[in-house]
Amino acid sequence: MPSAAALYELPDLRLAIADYLKHHHMNFNHTVGGQCQAFPNCELPFSHIQICLYASPLSAAWAIGCYNSIIITTDGNQDWPHSGLQAQWSNGDHIGNVVPSFQICAPVHLIPCFGQKLHPNLNVHLSNELSSSFWLNKYWTKELFHALSP
Hints:
Blueprint lengths: L1 H6 L5 H13 L29 E2 L9 E2 L1 E4 L31 E5 L1 E3 L21 E3 L5 H7 L2
Antiparallel strand pairs: 1-2, 3-4, 5-6
């Protein structure tokens, strides 16, 4: 598992998995984001993981990797898409988290809002990393369009 954390540059992956397992075991709602509560030397009941995600690790073309955006629900009382959207952003740090598949509502396509002046290092591989605001492309899929249209 340390190799997966290194490959995707997620130093807190072990802690995120430990937090998820603790919440799952205690039947707590799993929240996404925030600082992990597990201790750095925590024990896990396994030593290997199988990665099933839409991401590419670091490469020559993708200096920071490539990760897809998704809409998730963190409140079992909410009924997406009828409950609407509330954005949650990280502080710019790459964070690892475990999201149960039943909390994933939809993959989404984000389009960076560039503003009046472009960042000098902006390119196709860094546009999401160097942008601070985005448009949600509701035309990306038919299902997303119908879910987000009034």
